[in-house]
Amino acid sequence: MRDSFHQQLEHISEELTAMARLVELAVTRSTDALLTGNLTLAEQVISGDASVDALQKLVEDEAFEQLALQQPVASDLRALVATLRMVAELERMGDLAEHVAKIARLRYPDIAVPRELHDTFRRMGRLAATMVRMSGLNVIERDVAAARELMSLDDEMDQLRMSLFRATVDSSWQHGVEGAVDVALLGRYYERIADHCVSLARRVIYLVTGDYPPVEVPAIPTH
Amino acid sequence: MRDSFHQQLEHISEELTAMARLVELAVTRSTDALLTGNLTLAEQVISGDASVDALQKLVEDEAFEQLALQQPVASDLRALVATLRMVAELERMGDLAEHVAKIARLRYPDIAVPRELHDTFRRMGRLAATMVRMSGLNVIERDVAAARELMSLDDEMDQLRMSLFRATVDSSWQHGVEGAVDVALLGRYYERIADHCVSLARRVIYLVTGDYPPVEVPAIPTH
To answer: pTM score, two decimals?
Structure first.
């Protein structure tokens, strides 16, 4: 049987995984809201972000309590500090999903994304949701191979974002400036969700191996 | 004379302030590079981000060492954990300044920002640099009034960003989709720098008072 400190650490990891699950739902729902112009769903994501924030506060309080009461050293200390950072990353991903939902709400009853880019955004939404889910599992399982696999998914996200960028600046673009600005910002939000997942994966690899994997050179050098 | 732990904490705070100074320079230079199309300056910001990252690593290592060796409790523990978060915020602001510089470089020898928006971006750059500088001082001085003043500056940033947004979607906009996308992303980068400063100020207020000030409702509800 594990001691009380390690039980508590596991408990906190499970809360992080629950938080990742909420964020994954927010990503999926905000993408659906965006592509179907579903106002109710968008509102749900926006109001639902409060539960992500509440979980963040809970995890932070618990981690602080463990830091203060147990005074962990070495790997336990690193794990707790990493937890505090991971929770901040997850909270931020929740905010980004909320941003997507807010664009959906703003454009309602129109749909912010032109028809010909729906597939791209659907793929970005699925990819982001998958990466968030893998991040959540990774927090508990600490599987370096899985963390590296997660990091490799980021390449596709970069390519999707590049394809959006190309579409908006192409001479055949017919959705004006406002449409291009929406697409540019939405693309940035999905990319940032993926970036946070990569950052989480790097922390997991660091916790297991003691080394940070090198930062990938982004496929889009510009934005 | 202060004990070794508190000397070390002060030492770390000074490094954070130095890091803030580097980030402030990066913000100022990237804005200059952006508005004057100065390629050398843009390259300097881009390659200079490595020193911000190196400082981050140094501060993190030192904070970890103190956590492990001194096993601080209560307010000392909170201060160290807050340090780890502040350093992450500063590193991120450095990245954002680098993003601005990369857009400047990408458009060279053109200038990414249309002439009529130069004043707005110049003001955003100055405001962001001021906020970063105040953040750096705040880390050492822990002055709640100054932290609140810093937070209040964010309103102007939100308004500046809203004015950019309006300009790009106005029927008189003459810089096409690519110009609008650049302006939208640039506006987002400056706004995020200011957001990170606000987040830092909130941490300082929390360290001093034990309470987090409420999050401001953003002036732009959409993006």
So the answer is: 0.84
